[in-house]
């Protein structure tokens, strides 16, 4: 398929998070002007406690990441024995990373998740006992969302964790090529099968086609039944998180083309999304759209200036709530035969999302849940059981125990035959 012309005139058109993990935010500071009080209130901790929290956070996160990467390396040999087993193993390590970030958020950056959706997702988002939530999304979907701040992906990954069937081991994200070189995190993401792009479609199209081709393959189980592997492909059609500079560029492009300029969004870039959906056509039935809003980001403000890693995880000032409004589209109803028609469709859907954001900013809520006894499902990002984190260390622990016993056995044998000193 020949690449279609991008609507914003830029080659940087692959829909993806601007940066994985929000690592660059560690050094970025929120506004400290007296008139710009933080929406989550005063710092929850003094300087000394912030340092201790930062140290504990760093030790926890690095320990888990190092352990997960070691676990991945220990399973590399499976690639040459059985590819299906290898990919299942790496999917397991992806689940471990999801558990790591969920417990991390539960401890250091607790927040309320407030969820609703229109009639298209009625019955697919259910409250559970203990103020929990259960999503009933399919095993194979494409998920699109507006990009508010760098950690959007974290909360959307959590949705896979509380989905039935669980999907947190089957998330795939399209990322900037440079992110694969981040020590530990970048290495782990390569094992996860995330898709790294230079964001120049002429260069990226063959790579993207290859990776998506893997995700749409038909497999056969031992009984002869055919199936496709579970897959949640996460796309951010805006291409980057919203910021002052991004809004100016978006407004300029809208003015140049005579389009309406969304007030609370960036104009979406259609080329990458069009290519991805066409590649997966016939293997995915639905596209799920999530409109994301953070409590405390006022009109004309930007989340990257307010909810940094420092304020969220160290100062004790996470967003008071993260708000989701879900919609669903049948792939068969999306105009995928013509790039221009798709561009118009995507832009119109983004205008609808902009209207949803306007309602949120005006009332503090998205529309209530359609077809449900409750208007909103409110819950927390939390692990089902805090001891789940021990799974992160299971494989490495077993490997260490095995190696220890091999050494002991070797020592006994050597002593028995007189080889020891």
Automatic annotation (TrEMBL):
User: Which superkingdom heads the taxonomic lineage of this protein's source?
Assistant: Eukaryota
Record flagged with keyword Transferase: yes
Q: What is this protein called?
A: Phospholipid/glycerol acyltransferase domain-containing protein
Q: Could you tell me the keywords of this UniProt record?
A: Acyltransferase, Membrane, Transferase, Transmembrane, Transmembrane helix
User: Annotated region Disordered: where?
Assistant: 24-45
Recorded hits in SUPFAM superfamilies, A to Z, give: Glycerol-3-phosphate (1)-acyltransferase (SSF69593)
Q: Which family does it belong to?
A: Belongs to the 1-acyl-sn-glycerol-3-phosphate acyltransferase family.
Species of provenance: Trichoderma asperellum (strain ATCC 204424 / CBS 433.97 / NBRC 101777)
User: Where along the chain is composition biased (Polar residues)?
Assistant: 24-34
Q: Which GO terms describe its cellular component?
A: endoplasmic reticulum
Please give the InterPro entries that the UniProt record associates with this protein.
Acyltransf_C, Plipid/glycerol_acylTrfase
For this protein, the record's CDD domains field holds: LPLAT_LCLAT1-like (cd07990)
Residue ranges spanning the membrane: these are 57-80
One short Pfam family name for this protein? Acyltransferase
User: Locate the Phospholipid/glycerol acyltransferase domain: which residues?
Assistant: 141-274
GO process annotations (BP): phosphatidylinositol acyl-chain remodeling
PANTHER family from the xrefs? Answer: 1-ACYLGLYCEROL-3-PHOSPHATE ACYLTRANSFERASE-RELATED, LYSOCARDIOLIPIN ACYLTRANSFERASE 1
According to the UniProt entry, its GO molecular function terms are: acyltransferase activity
